[in-house]
Amino acid sequence: xxxxxxxxxxxxxxVERPGQALxxxxxxxxxxxxxxxxxxxxxxxxxxxxxxxxxxxxxxxTARAVRxxxxxxxxxxxxxxE
Length: 82
Fold this sequence. Notes:
By secondary structure, this protein is mainly β. The protein contains 1 helix and 7 strands; from the N terminus they run E-E-E-E-E-E-E-H.
Protein backbone atom coordinates (compact mmCIF):
# COMPACT_ATOMS: atom_id res chain seq x y z
CA UNK A 1 0.00 0.00 0.00
CA UNK A 2 1.38 3.40 -0.97
CA UNK A 3 1.21 6.27 1.52
CA UNK A 4 1.64 9.96 0.85
CA UNK A 5 4.48 11.28 2.99
CA UNK A 6 6.06 14.70 3.45
CA UNK A 7 9.66 15.24 4.52
CA UNK A 8 10.02 17.38 7.64
CA UNK A 9 13.64 18.40 7.02
CA UNK A 10 16.38 17.96 4.41
CA UNK A 11 17.39 14.29 4.14
CA UNK A 12 20.48 12.80 2.51
CA UNK A 13 19.20 9.40 1.42
CA UNK A 14 20.95 6.41 -0.10
CA VAL A 15 18.78 5.45 -3.06
CA GLU A 16 18.86 2.21 -4.98
CA ARG A 17 17.67 2.55 -8.59
CA PRO A 18 16.51 -0.35 -10.77
CA GLY A 19 19.31 -1.63 -12.98
CA GLN A 20 22.09 0.13 -11.05
CA ALA A 21 24.50 -1.75 -8.80
CA LEU A 22 25.60 1.20 -6.64
CA UNK A 23 23.59 3.26 -4.17
CA UNK A 24 23.21 6.92 -5.13
CA UNK A 25 23.18 9.69 -2.52
CA UNK A 26 20.16 11.94 -3.07
CA UNK A 27 19.12 15.11 -1.23
CA UNK A 28 15.40 15.20 -0.49
CA UNK A 29 14.30 18.73 0.37
CA UNK A 30 12.09 19.69 3.30
CA UNK A 31 8.45 19.78 2.23
CA UNK A 32 8.88 17.23 -0.58
CA UNK A 33 5.80 15.03 -0.89
CA UNK A 34 6.08 11.52 -2.31
CA UNK A 35 4.08 8.31 -2.49
CA UNK A 36 5.91 5.38 -0.93
CA UNK A 37 5.41 1.87 0.32
CA UNK A 38 7.26 1.41 3.63
CA UNK A 39 9.16 -1.44 5.27
CA UNK A 40 9.81 -0.33 8.87
CA UNK A 41 12.51 -1.74 11.14
CA UNK A 42 14.87 -0.78 13.96
CA UNK A 43 18.49 0.20 13.36
CA UNK A 44 21.27 0.66 15.90
CA UNK A 45 22.80 4.08 16.48
CA UNK A 46 25.41 5.24 19.00
CA UNK A 47 22.48 6.47 21.14
CA UNK A 48 20.51 3.22 20.90
CA UNK A 49 17.89 1.86 18.52
CA UNK A 50 16.10 4.18 16.07
CA UNK A 51 13.03 3.60 13.91
CA UNK A 52 13.80 3.64 10.20
CA UNK A 53 12.11 2.48 7.02
CA UNK A 54 13.04 1.51 3.51
CA UNK A 55 10.88 3.65 1.23
CA UNK A 56 9.80 2.02 -2.03
CA UNK A 57 8.75 4.71 -4.52
CA UNK A 58 6.39 4.45 -7.48
CA UNK A 59 9.25 4.75 -9.99
CA UNK A 60 10.87 1.56 -8.62
CA UNK A 61 13.64 3.29 -6.66
CA THR A 62 14.21 2.59 -2.96
CA ALA A 63 15.54 4.91 -0.25
CA ARG A 64 17.25 2.82 2.43
CA ALA A 65 17.10 3.35 6.21
CA VAL A 66 15.27 6.70 6.30
CA ARG A 67 14.50 7.79 9.85
CA UNK A 68 10.80 7.86 10.69
CA UNK A 69 11.31 11.24 12.36
CA UNK A 70 12.34 12.72 8.98
CA UNK A 71 8.89 12.38 7.42
CA UNK A 72 5.22 12.44 8.29
CA UNK A 73 2.19 10.71 6.87
CA UNK A 74 -0.38 12.88 5.13
CA UNK A 75 -4.05 12.06 5.33
CA UNK A 76 -7.19 13.61 3.84
CA UNK A 77 -7.46 16.28 6.57
CA UNK A 78 -3.79 17.29 6.17
CA UNK A 79 -4.05 17.60 2.39
CA UNK A 80 -7.17 19.76 2.60
CA UNK A 81 -5.56 22.24 5.01
CA GLU A 82 -2.50 22.87 2.87
